[in-house]
Design brief:
There is one protein chain. The protein is α/β, with parallel strands linked by helices and 296 residues long. It has one domain: Immunoglobulin-like (Sandwich), CATH 2.60.40.420. It is built from 5 helices and 13 strands. The protein has an 8-stranded mixed beta sheet. Helix 2 runs antiparallel to helix 3. The radius of gyration is 27 Å and the shape is elongated.
């Protein structure tokens, strides 16, 4: 009776906690990369659930069929040889499962690391996303603007994020648009994403990077290309230019709100030259200011 009430209390506790949880963002994709990852996640959930149910059913069957019974003291069980079919089944099925999941994982990895499907013929928007304790700096070199702690992106257009860090290793992650990727101080990593529909999404640093890690988040607003262009024009008309002195202040550890600037810190603090994972790693983005060429 005690065990029964104990199990019931665990069940109701888990049920109560889960009802207060927010929906899993990774299973609510808003872009092609995230859709592929959500598809793989559902595949794993269904496959693993099936395996668990089969194992539990076999456990119940074995416990019932081969449970202890009262036999004569001189009873001797018959001699039995091992079954080749049983051994082949128990070894072969796990091999097949692992091989299948490996194939799916490798295939998906190539898909999410490339330009999003359906966007191959569209010019991507390049955004340099750099982190510092505990902020995110978003530089739009083509638009010549920069934002702090918030990100605006157009829909129906490929996004190419160049990730690096001014401090410890961080991880750039927008769950509804795609998986996370690390940002490091000595190299640039490239992350390909796209947003299919307008909306407000949550982005964050998914890698522990100190005491301010919990608040190292940023909102992401996806809008139409027309609205994005209007926002860019508004920034150019109203925002102040970013200076090297101001940028050095922003790099100091601490939390800040949203900020918007014209120009980018790439002009005086270029990104690391080593670009890992870019589909156009041989191409250079040139800055003409002060007659200097900076490869990002």
């Amino acid at each position: 009776m005690k065990i029964k009430w104990f199990l019931l209390s665990i069940f109701f506790t888990i049920t109560t906690v889960l009802t207060a949880c927010e929906p899993l963002l990774v299973l609510d994709p808003k872009g092609p990369q995230a859709a592929r990852q959500a598809q793989d996640t559902w595949l794993l959930i269904i496959l693993m659930s099936f395996i668990v149910l089969v194992v539990l059913a076999l456990l119940v069957f074995i416990l019932l069929k081969y449970r202890a019974s009262k036999l004569d003291p001189d009873y001797e069980p018959p001699h039995m040889e091992g079954s080749a079919w049983v051994e082949a089944t128990f070894i072969g099925i796990p091999i097949i499962i692992v091989a299948y999941l490996s194939f799916v994982s490798v295939q998906s990895n190539y898909i999410v690391e490339a330009t999003p499907q359906g966007y191959e013929d569209k010019e991507p928007l390049i955004v340099y996303a750099s982190s510092s304790n505990w902020k995110w700096h978003f530089s739009y070199p083509e638009e010549d603007i920069e934002t702090l702690n918030y990100l605006y992106i157009p829909t129906d257009r490929a996004l190419e994020f160049k990730l690096y860090s001014f401090g410890p290793i961080t991880s750039f992650w927008i769950p509804q648009l795609g998986g996370q990727k690390y940002a490091m101080s000595d190299m640039v990593t490239t992350l390909h994403l796209a947003a299919d529909v307008p909306g407000e999404y949550m982005g964050r640093n998914a890698n522990f990077s100190g005491q301010g890690f919990a608040e190292n988040t940023f909102p992401v607003t996806a809008m139409t290309q027309k609205e994005f262009d209007e926002w860019v024009n508004e920034v150019k008309e109203t925002a102040k230019p970013i200076t090297e002195e101001k940028f050095n202040e922003l790099l100091e550890p601490g939390h800040l709100g949203r900020m918007t600037f014209t120009g980018t810190h790439l002009d005086f603090r270029p990104a690391p030259e080593h670009d890992h994972g870019s589909s156009s790693s041989n191409e250079e983005y040139e800055h003409d200011e002060n007659d200097e060429d900076h490869s990002h």
